[in-house]
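fyi for ur records
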Amino acid sequence: MVLAPNVYDAEPIPEAAREEIERLLQSGDLFRYTAPKDAPVALLEREFAALMGARFAVAVSSCSAALFLSLKALDLPRGARVLIPAFTFAAVPSAIVHADCQPVLAEVGQNFRLDMDDFAARLDDDIAAVLISHMRGHTSDMDRIMQLCAARDIPVIEDAAHSLGTTWHGRKIGTLGRIGCFSFQSYKLVNAGEGGILITDDPDLAARAVIMSGAYEHNWKKHDGLQNSFARWQNKLPLYNLRMQNLSAAVIRPQLPQIDRRVRDGLAGHDHVAALLNGSPWLDVPPPLPPEGRAPDSIQFNLVGFARDDEALAFQAEAKARGVAVQVFGLSQDNARAFWNWQFIDGPLPDLPQTRAMLMRACDVRLPARLTRDELDFIANALIAAAEAVKAAPRAYGT
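which gave:
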């Protein structure tokens, strides 16, 4: 008998990390700029840039910090309008507000991706930058996004917190825009508890981000290949002290070689569950866009034919009773992914009926790559049974 799987624990931290952490603890050398060279954070930056095929990487305290520094590195004026998808985590508009800019929200469709007509209509001359959040690893039409932004010379930042390992036409997500930002928070593909990193091919953007991250005085000299840009910005930029420390880097580095395996296993598990859920008339997992190679560690699906909120909440309760925790984004109290809860944004929140309707029936379930086939079947069968229990529909299909 398969018990309800624990979907919250991450994979064990590799033994190599434990050994490096013990060495660091013995030395007390936890600050990234203490070592004359090759501190763990510096090595992580070098290795991650190579992994992604980017020229530069800057490791910081979180993906939110990376987004904030990216906006500041672009030197946007105070009050600049930054266009984002309305389906994202509250940290994304928060980073924009923190950077003294104004979030502008674009509609998202039933497939969890940008409505490109609405995006194009909002991309006017008052938009200073676009921050594309690949929410839960769902990639919007990056061909059209990049084409529209290039035509107006608008820089694109990619929030790839959920998209490490995802590709678009074979190209790694996070390398399409001017800057790509990634997360190492506990529920991401690589787990350090907290942590983030940004990548770019632009030496001036990298240098500005390094200094503002907290490379005070001449600590920037410990970053390779940016000396001319660094000298230009010495003493001209504020220090926000958003550095990563060596213990986090020691946890992250041994996990980088495991990314390909985690992507492969996570995608196989996701697609197995998606196929089962799509066999139900009450559940719908939207397909990826054709150029998209996904790297999911969770699954999102829509409730079909659940006209009333109480039905959707009953489905959530039925799934929980069967051992599977489901989040209905729009019906979870104070959910940080529901745009109407972002009351820290100046001015009235926009009316986004398409995004609102999607969030009211969009469901979220974690599917870490470590789950076995039996555990995946348990989750899928519990979700299907929960939908059937609410809709009282005869079982006319197999799982």
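Residues 394-399 have pLDDT under 50 and may be disordered. thats all i got for now
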